[in-house]
Amino acid sequence: MNNNPIGIFDSGIGGLTVAKAVSKLLPKEEIIYFGDTAHLPYGDKSTAAIQSYSIKICNLLLEKSCKIILIACNSASAAAFNLVKEYVGSKAIVLNVIDPAVEYIGEYYSQKKIGLIGTKRTVLSDVYNQKIVELNKSIELKSLATPLLAHIIEEGFATNRVGDEVVHQYLSDDILDDIEALILGCTHYPLIKDKIDSFYASQVEVIDSSEVVAISLKEKLETHNLLSDNKNTIHKFYVSDYTKSFEESTKIFFGEKVILKHYKLWE
Ligand code: DGL
After folding, report:
1. N or C: which end of the chain has fewer CB within 10 A?
2. Domain that holds residue 182
3. DSSP for 42-60, written as a single string
4. Within a domain: 11
């Protein structure tokens, strides 16, 4: 079981930011990544739709004997984590990307005003807010849905002026005034973290949760005695619809041999 892969999924390239952090921290772990590009974006879909996509992807990851399934998408973590966890039962450990970020906030931002940007699904779900309230640390959370950002990133516009303009428009919203930190509540957003940092002139901590997620995954593996001792890890990447930007991003991100397969899960 220890050398079985870790399954990671997202709607597209966003979860690669998490997969990258995992491969950096845990180089002996083999990753099977599934980007559900056929249904991108998840953030505009209903809870029921995201739940049904997530269950089908989990079936695939279970067939591939994944010891852990990491939902590397905030929208799916908000909409489907509880259901997926129940569905998977004892066959694998299921993790999400929201809990580690909330723990981090609880540790460093007691009694502060914090911002959150994410997809419509993530913001409407109110999951971050509920979990932060449960911390009971008088943290005030201000949330803003920024639905265009994932599209821009997925289309490869993140590095040009289109990206600058959209980031500027969203972050200028009054709701985010006077925040001390901003949670990137979408796994696509670390790809534009530089732009967000420069908007705030580094006066606001911009929280990319991929590293805290990787650390919490490592702790889980240790607790369950599931760390791998693989010598040669070859990660595998699947997409439900082939996209050029996904292939390019995986190559850039992993800078190593990448096996990208078009997996026709929905056909
Ligand atoms: N990466 C996904 C997330 O973290 C969002 C992108 C999408 O809307 O599909 O929510």
Report:
1. C
2. 99-210
3. STTS-HHHHHHHHHHHHHH
4. yes
Contact residues of ligand 1, CB 6 A cut-off: 10-12, 14, 40-43, 73-75, 119, 122, 150, 186-188
Measured distance CA(219)–CA(216) in Å, rounded: 5
Tokens of 82: 């509880």
**86 and 131 housed in the same domain:** no
- How many domains is the chain built from? 2
pLDDT tens track for 127-165: 999 999 999 999 999 999 999 999 898 888 878 888 999
Q: Atom of ligand 1 at shortest distance to CA of 188?
A: 1
List, in order, residues 6 or more apart from 194 with CB less than 8 Å away: none
β-bridge mates for residue 144, sequence order: 117
Asked whether residue 56 is assigned to any structural domain, the reply reads yes
How far is ligand 1, taken at its centre, from the CA of residue 119, in Å?
6
Tell me the per-residue pLDDT of 78-132, one tens digit each, with 9 for 90 and over: 999 999 999 999 999 999 999 999 999 999 999 999 999 999 999 999 999 999 9
Nearest to 19 by CA among 256, 266, 241: 256
Cα atoms in the 13 Å half-sphere on the side-chain side of 140: 9
Query: Domain check: are 12 and 44 in the same one?
Result: yes
**CA 113 to centroid of ligand 1, rounded, Å:** 24
pTM of the model: 0.96
Q: Report strand pairing: 6-10 vs 31-35.
A: parallel
Residue 205 and residue 107 share a domain: yes
Domain match, 162 and 197 both: yes
